Each structure stands twice: as structure tokens, then as C-alpha cells.
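Lab channel / #folding
Pinned by the channel admin:
"Please post every new chain as: sequence first, then the C-alpha cells as a reply. Keep commentary short and put observations after the output so the thread stays searchable."

First post following the new format, from NK:
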Amino acid sequence: MRVLLLTDADFALRERSMLERLAVGIADEGARVALAAPRSVSGSDVPTLIEHVAYDPPFPLLGARVQAELLHESLVERRFTTEAGSLDVIHAFGFSAVELAIALGAIENAGVVLELWKHLSSQEARRIERLARRGETPVELVWSTPSAVMRDEFMALAPGADCRVIPWGVHTPRVTQKLTDIDNALGVVLLVNRRMGAAAATAFTALSSALSAVEQETVVVCDDAVVRRDHRVWRAVRKLGLLDRLSFVSGLEARRAPALAADLVISITEPGEHRSIVLDAMGHGRTVVALDDPRVEWLRDGETCRTTHGPDLESWRSVLSQLIASPDVRASLGESAQAWVRAERSASGQVRELLQLYSHVEHRAAELAEAGER
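Reply from TO:
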């Protein structure tokens, strides 16, 4: 089996760890794998087992078909496919890569898997379904999502679509690092969607209030793009006097070490948005606080994390105050989270279920191609 993992720039920057983990795991099972990412974000720090292909993202004037032909030629040059097409499955990550994946699937007669990692409108879902079915070469299209709740919602938006639940997985190391070498210091990392500036400002305010109630050295780490580019967050951080405690890390989700070593990880994302760094933090035994979100099934209040029951200041303050004041509670919750992830969200489990899905898609794509030749 030949599998192409195709990602857009945004997903590649945030989820490189998961993409590389999947590529290595799939290759270990005997499949040939390539990881295709936009040239602007393709780096040399990829596993040597995996073939890395850089591509230029679609330009509006050229269209996805022309860009797919260019990518196909690159794959032929690397002998990853043939002129006639020999890819079996293309798994697309990031919605900006969807049209390119479908166009390449038509050239290769390959099945296409689209990762549904956040909410998609009914209009967009139906547009993508139509895109796969139209043209001289229809494409076998299957959606993959880490959430059963999102699968059910999606099926209601796009009746007739094929959507499967493939939970994401991570490793669960026995030994983890500390964020800071300062004795008894508290390490806090905030993971914030850039579009959630108001919620981030509220969380910073609650964090400042909770920290003021304890006498403890604290190191707070946040992506510089969140604080420096959103005036609401910057104004709140400056007003609260947190700047002297704050360390900025560019591309925090790609450079995961701080989040995987923090005592407390605060996650602020849009509803339904899945980011594997949060699951990764749980797998490392970190204490996670997040907005309550039934679509993200690894957010299990009291078992894998603490969730706020609303975005308001008091909800954030209540949860953060308890956790910051109680190291034993944090430790117990971290142990519980790691145990749940080890049992329910293993990296090997994700690879195993994906390979089963790929086999299904490969078979269905072959049937579709055979029917088209009649």
C-alpha cells in the first residue's frame, strides 16, 4: 500500500508531531508513506524513514488541478508513484489541502481521506462532497474524525457522506521533565487559538487572581502571536502585571516541550477544535484546564482535565484557584489523565485503526475505478 499524507501549512505547523508519528507508525506496518507539505513549512527535521515532498500550495489563477499535476510529477520523479498513478490512499489534513487532495486523487485513481478535526459548515461539507463526485473521474471520499459527536453532527449536515471515527493517539512516557529548574516553581503554559482573544484575556485575568492568592514563584509561557498580536490580550497582560512572569515562545504548538513539561496547561480553543498538543500534555501527565466542549471527547472533567462550565471570569477563577493552591490535586489529575490516555488514546491504536480505514478506502477506490472503465 502507498499512502500520501497531504497537509496544508497551518496543520503542518501545529501538528507536525502527530503527522510524523503517523508516518513512522504506518511505515512500520509495511506501507510506503510520503509526507507532502507546502514548501514554506517543509523542514529537513523529518524521520529518515519517511519520504518528504515539498509542494507549492494552489494559486487562485492556476487551480487545484494544475497544482495536483505538478505534485503528481514530483511524486513520479521520486518514484513514489507512476505516470499512470499508483497511490492507494491520500489522507488530507487541513481544509486548505482538500481541493488539492481530491484533484490528485482523480489523477491517481486513489481514495481520499479527509480529516475532520474541527466544525465544518453544512454548505462547505456538501460542496466538498460534490467536488469529489463530479468530473470525468469521481473520487472515493471518506471523512475521518476523532470524535463520535462530530461524526454524528457531520452526518446530519451531509447525509450520504461516509464519516468514520478514528480517535487520535499519543505516546505516554513514564518519565517527564519539569518546565523550570527553580525549586518549587509553578510552570504554566497557555495554548490559545488566535481567534479566541477575548477568552484568553479572561483566562489571564483569572490566572492572575489565582496566583495572587499563593506565594509561589511562577513561570508562564504563551505563544507570542497570541499576546503580541491581539490588543485585548496584550492590554490584559500588561494591566495585570504579568509581563515579568511571561515567556514568549514562537510556534508553541510545533515546539511542544514547554507544554509537555508544565505543571498546568490552559487550553483555549474554538468549539469542536481538536489540537493534539492537549492530548499530548495529558499523555505526559500534565494537568489540563480547558473550556467545556462535548465535541472533544478527551476532555473528561475530573478524569483527564478540569473544564470550566462557562467562559466567564468566575468559572475560570474557580477552577484555576483550586488547582494552583493544591499540588496534590494536580498530581492526582495528571496521573489519572495519563492512565486514561494510555488505555484509550494510544498512538499505536490510531495507526491500527487508520490502516483498517485505508484498506477499506483502497478497496472502494478500486471498485469505483473499475466501474468507470466499463
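NK: The chain has a mean pLDDT of 91.
TO: also worth noting, The longest strand covers residues 32-38.
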